Structure formats: C-alpha cells, structure tokens
Amino acid sequence: MKGQTRVISFSHGLQASYSNEIDWSHFHQHSSEIEMAFHPVGPVTYLFGGREEVILQGETFLYWGAIPHRVIESMEGDTCYFLTIPVSLFVQMSLPASFVRQIFSGEIFKEKSPIMREIDLLFFHHSKGLAAGENDFLSRSVLYWVQYRLFRFLSNLEHPLDETESQYIPKVNPLQQETKTEYVKVKKDKTVEKMYKFITSNYLKQVAIQDVADHVNLNANYANTLFRESTGLSIGRFISMMRIYKSQSLLLTTDLKIIDVALDSGFQSLGNFYKSFQQQVGESPSQYRSRHMPKLEL
Asked: Which residues of 62-81 are buried (b: 16+ CB within 10 A; e: fewer)?
C-alpha cells in the first residue's frame, strides 16, 4: 500500500488523522493529548508503559498519550486512525471522575462495538469536509460529537454487545486465520525485550544504564547502542520518560507535594526532576498541575 498520512485540525485543539506510515521503531509520547484510536486491520500488539496490549481488528482503544507507547507487531496493510483530544479539553467534558482518574493512572480502555466503529469511520471520512468549511456552528458540532463519542464509549464498556449488534462483528476466514499475513515484526529482539522489561519493572528504583547492561550481561555502551537501535531511545532517555510519565500521573491524581512527586517517580533530586520535566513536557510540574488539577476536582 502506498504510504499516506492525513491530519485534519479543528478548533479547540482537536485533531483527526490516519496513517499507514507511522515510524514505530521508537516510542511515542504525547503528554498533552488523550488519544482514541483503532486499526481496521489487526491484531496489533502495543507496548504501553510496562505492559503489552493486543488490540483486535477494529477494536477502539482509549489512552493517555503520555504513556510511552509503540507498536511491536502489526499486520500487512495496517492503517491507524487517531482522534486526539487535548488534556485541558478532556477534563472539561463532564466525564465521570473515576474514569478520568483511571485514564491519568495509565489505564487502557477498549470497546468492541462494530456499530460505533462504523460511525467512527464515517467521521474520519467526512472530517476533511467539516474542517474545510469550519465555522462556529461546525466547531461546536465537532466538539459535541467528541463528547458524545466518549460517553458512548463508556456506555458500550458497561453494556456488552447484544445479539442484534453481535451479528455485525466481522467473521474470520479460516484460511486468513492460518496465513495471518506474516506478521510485520517491528523487532522483537530478546535481549532488548529483557532490557525493556527490567527498566519498566525497576525505573522507580536507583537503576542506571550499568544495571540494565548487567541484567543482560553486556557492556554498558553496547547495551545502550542495542537499545537505541531497537527503540530509537537511549536507555537513560527511556528511564527518564517512564519517570516523567509516572510524575504526570501523580500530579493529576494526587495532592502530593512536588518534592514527594519527584521522589515517588524515581528522581533523587528536585533540580533534576524540574529539569527533566521541563524538557519533556515544556512547562514546570506546578504549571502543569495548576492548568489541570482544579478542573479535575480531585
């Protein structure tokens, strides 16, 4: 399939996009976005933070973009559709407080409704025309649709598919099941996988590059090179990314003091925490919290 990417921007910071040429060789992290996505071709295996998640064909999933994530297995001809919602807008949408807290604690929500997936596809196909002629009325229409979509997402999670809806689930051809179009492997090197799992299990402790290298019996420089070639990040950068993600979660779900957030996220000094946070998020921890915390009513 010819490579293509399209991004449609609306007011309020909302964006609809789809692409079949995303570079999944490294981790992605979008601190200020909530993402709703689906893959028409599947299954697709993601790494989210410290765990693997298998997303089925057409299964819609919702997550906080601050979680370091990447695809490690996908199918030939895969395309991903995204709807990105600014965090500042998401927290104003009158969603259940428990749901908002779970999102900011790193939960991945999945919904299997084929009817809603068809509606999602229609939205993506028509969104270009909507954005092209956007005015105040259309801006509000898109905003209301996104809010409606999130509430429907929650409703479908609470109420499993009934018999009428189940008939629309695509049947898997046994022949396709066999061939499963050879998985496109985005690298599953066992050594790198061991390093990844060690980091995601220990990043809150005093873990350094040498500790990761020792875990796989490699020279520190070689281990770092191997990890970078596979993930696009150095070991140190990935450890920092995981710690910042943890700190963002604590800032949005607790009233801990900044110093306690830093220590509970694996940082040993407040200065190092502030520097890393500013570099990755673009603002200080207190600014980040003050922009969102009052609206969360935690």
From this structure: bbbbbbbbbbbbbbeebbbb
With beta carbons less than 8 A apart as the criterion, state whether 273 and 247 touch. yes
Mean pLDDT, the chain, whole residue set: 80
Per-residue burial over 144-176, b if 16 or more Cβ lie within 10 Å, else e, is ebbbebbeebeebeeeeeeeebeeeeeeeeeee
- Each residue of 201-236: b (16+ CB within 10 Å) or e? ebbbeebebebbbebbebeeeebbebbbebbbbebe
Beta strand spans in 175-280 (E): 184-185
What's the order of all strands across the beta sheet hosting 184-185? 51-55, 44-48, 69-74, 184-185
What sign does the dihedral 135-138-144-150 (CA atoms) show? negative
Higher pLDDT, 222 or 253: 222
**Residue among 194, 112, 195 nearest 152 (CA):** 112
pLDDT at 287 exceeding the cut of 80: yes
Summarize pLDDT for 66-93 with one digit per residue, the tens: 888 888 888 888 889 999 998 778 877 8
Task: Give the side-chain half-sphere CA count within 13 A for 219.
Answer: 3
Contact 104, 61 (CB under 8 A): no
User: Percent of the chain beyond pLDDT 90?
Assistant: 29
Answer whether residue 45 shows pLDDT above 60: yes
